[in-house]
Amino acid sequence: MLRFVSTLPLLEHLVLVRNVPPYPDESVSEHVEHFFCVNYPDHYLTHQIVYNANKLAKLVEKKKSLQNWLVYYQNKYEKKPTKKPATKTGFWGLWGNTVDAIDYYTNEIEKCSKEEAAERERVISDPNAIVPAAFVSFKSRWGAAVCAQTQQSSDPTIWLTEWASEPRDVYWNNLAIPYVKLSFRRMLMAVGLFFLTFFSMIPIAFVQSLANIEGIEKVFPFLKSLIEMIPKTIGVSIPMKATFFITYIMVDGWAGIAAEIVRLVPLVMFHLKNTFLVKTDQDREQAMDPGSFDFATSEPRKQLYFLLGLVYSVITPILLPFILVFFAFSYMVFRHQDAMVKDTVERATEPNLNLKAYLQDAYIHPIFKGGDFDRPAAVDEEGNNPLVLTKRSSQRGSQRG
């Protein structure tokens, strides 16, 4: 059973800070701590700096894949010890030299482990691997709100703040992209969207000119006799289609929502994965992952039934009870799925939740979970802020302009 941790209320205590300006006498972590202890002495709690660990993350994923293949071949050898499994060294094991699979993957894991250890040490010890950004935690929602929605410096290009995303929604690769380059990419996307919207207005304007009968008669005068029949046909046929939509709602809507309880499609997909893709227990655990709600398919269905209700509420009101039953079923089913299948745990409502301990480790890069690296001390809850150790000769640089 998959267990999710809901942290939405806790996000109100967190702010993402970008473009931390460099300071010659302090590290990024010291600079962030000094800045917020000075400017938010009653609200600052702790922070977590961001590492550029993109290469390390790729090595970790590569090692996991190699270990998975090693376990697969070891299990295969245990089932049939008379024949040692073999593999090819080429792409996906489809071509190349044929070698002993267990020895090959054991050696590859050793090589990858050495590369991973060296890269991990480099990331932790190299100051250049630290991104000029940090996740800052506050004791109060008010302090976080003020920080996230106000300009922190007279220079509008530094100390840029925004609300932090939920930890599982953080795309760590993008945090390593310089903010100027990221802004340039956003500008390119905005320009591309503008031209896409602008040029799409041409066919839209043409179709819009045909949106009324008079416009169609002007563009296609030879269809005048046919166009005169359209209002009569539509006026008669739309109410008659109510029976079809009632049947459609009962079959697709009611039955579809009932099938969501059974989760037939995920069950079939699991057995297909288990038959053709699963090699180890880790693969089986991933195949059993129920995932999240598929908004791409479930949300349009709800909008369709809502639209049908709007259209037929005046023409054929008898359709409305069937739609109301559909939405009532949807409410009960998805509440059940959220409570039972997903097993949501609202940790934010726990009375004994240690806010400092949770927030201090919430925004650590996944590859550093459980490791030893720079964790700044949290300010105590009584508000007795410790003295901010600094190597500066002046504190003007840390104060707001």
How many helices? The count is 16
What is the number of E strands? Answer: 6
Mean of all residue-level pLDDT scores: 79
The proportion of strand residues reads 5-15%
Helix and strand sequence: HEHEHEEHEHEHHHHHHHHHHH
Rg over C-alpha atoms, rounded to the nearest angstrom: 30 Å
Runs in which pLDDT lies below 50 for 5 or more consecutive residues are: 1-7, 344-349, 380-385, 393-399
Largest sheet: 4 strands, antiparallel
Strands of the largest sheet, in order across it?
Answer: 2-5-1-6
What this model shows, in words?
- This protein is α+β, with helices and mostly antiparallel strands and 401 residues long.
- The protein has a domain of 162 residues.
- Helix content is 56%, strand content 8%.
- The chain is built from 16 helices and six strands.
- The strands form two sheets. It has a four-stranded antiparallel β-sheet, sandwiched between helices.
- Helix 11 runs antiparallel to helix 14, helix 11 packs parallel to helix 15 and helix 14 packs antiparallel against helix 15.
- The chain is extended.
